[in-house]
Amino acid sequence: MKLFITTKKEAKKKLIFYSRIQVLILDDFLINYLDQERSVILFSLIKMRDERGTTTIATSQYELSDWNNFVEANNNYAIAGSVRRRLLNNGFTILIEKS
Fold first, then answer.
1. pLDDT tens for each residue of 63-91
2. Which of 54, 80, 87, 90 could form a cystine bridge with 71, CB 3.0-4.6 A?
């Protein structure tokens, strides 16, 4: 599989591919900071999956309220908020704490 996307057509094709997977697991979700471009790609993917009704599982070391700190949106938290809402609207949260 090719790691880098070079054209918009190729990017759209990848988004469609990942939006159709029945269960997509995003392990260590938002462990690294996402720049503006990657934030928009993430939002597009989550939106497409939400519209298709496919299952997305995200694991993270951070609280939901901290996700805004890892998504760049020109100081506009709409993208991070939209991603969070789309993951939670028809889902649930399991919090596992250290003993």
1. 887 887 887 655 567 888 888 888 888 88
2. 80
The span from the CA of 76 to the CA of 61, in Å, is 23
pLDDT for 75 equals: 59
Please give the angle made by the CA atoms of 15, 58 and 54, to the nearest 5 degrees.
50
d(CA 1, CA 3) in angstroms, rounded, equals: 6
Tokens 């990942």 — which residue?
Answer: 18
Residue 99 amino acid letter? S
* Alpha carbon of residue 37 to chain centroid: 13
Q: Which of 39, 41, 28, 48 is nearest to 81 (CA)?
A: 39
For 13-23, the pLDDT digits (tens) are: 999 999 999 99
